[in-house]
Amino acid sequence: MKIAVAMSGGVDSSAAAALLKEQGHELVGFTMQLWNQRRNINVDENGDPLPSRCCSLDDVYDARRVAQNLGFPFYVLNLENDFERSVVEPFVQSYLSGETPIPCVACNSRLKFASLDRMALSLGCEKVATGHYARVEYDADTDRYRLFRGRNHWKDQSYFLWELNQEQLSRSLFPLGEMAKSDVRDIARNADLYTAEKQESQEICFVPDGNYSAFIDRYLEHEGRTAELPEGGAIVNTSGETIGEHSGIHRYTIGQRRGLGIAHEKPLYVVQIERAKNQIIVGEADELEAVEFTASGVNWVAFDEPTEPVRAEVKIRYRHEPAMATITALSDREARIRFDEPQRAITPGQATIFYNGDEVVGGGWIVRG
């Protein structure tokens, strides 16, 4: 087949390309330039650039080098404006609203796959391949493409792919879905690729130091929009008593314990962020647990929207162990999820994924408890 390969400059996409090349496919490589590091937003207090191992010019060079070594054409897609509009700005607004967003889902489905899909079709490519640890299979009985977790559950990245629609899944190819990380590095080594020993990037690509509130401060200052930054306000307990002060709701997240500046006989955690009242609500560990929440923007992957409640294992964040729940579809692509047992720190802005074993049943965005 003729296949478009997304090249991040890391070992996973490099190994995926090497594997497909070895299988005899015709490849066209693409790297997406997403974030303009030269805007001087990601700098420390001295004005020096923060180190970044993702979406940097070095990654573009590494991806090009892999394509040259493997002998296939390579192109760079400049998506900086689209990325800022579709990923960065919603990320900032979500934090300003008291949520804790996960931008990598929207980036994968709404930007990367959508852009690559269009480019691949224009070049006559049958598939779009990436280095994600996930699996997709076609079910002839239902005439539907099914999405599954990667065999290596610790590396599984199906969490970031639940928004893909049937058309996108029909052209998606995940060569690493059956593999462990050690196997992937061996493939890169055997192909003599420069990226074989390259370290992984764990942070959100445009926030290299992981300090989200500091990024938002710098971003809004750079854009001349500091008036949008939330003012300080009250920290209250679940009884409504003021017990402290916060420095802006975008500096807090559900489940946070450190940095509250409150002395209490038992540990206190952020249990709710109230944007309308500009309040941080804190409570003890048991007050952080809940059994029910609502999800918006729900995408049903395994089947069309159900008319009856669905039993599934539900994740509420990337490293959360899926827990059994009942999912009831509501109107306007919403769903109500009720766990069998209370879960800790259900956080608005995060993605929630529904599983039946290894299969992705669907997913959505956590909006409220």
Report how far the terminal alpha carbons are from each other. Answer: 47 Å
Query: What proportion of the residues is helical, as a percent range?
Result: 10-25%
The SS-based structural class is alpha/beta
* Pattern of helices and strands: EHEHEHHEEEHEHHEEEEEEEEEE
Q: Order of strands across the biggest sheet?
A: 12-15-14-13-16-17
Q: In total, how many domains does the architecture comprise? A: 3
What's the gyration radius in Å? 22 Å
Largest sheet: 6 strands, antiparallel, barrel
Q: Could you name the CATH homologous superfamily of the largest domain?
A: HUPs
CATH fold topology of the largest domain: Rossmann fold
Mean pLDDT: 92
Task: Please identify, by name, the CATH architecture of the largest domain.
Answer: 3-Layer(aba) Sandwich
Strand content: 25-35%
Total strands: the figure is 17
Flag low-confidence runs. Answer: none
Using the coordinates above, name the CATH class of the largest domain.
Alpha Beta
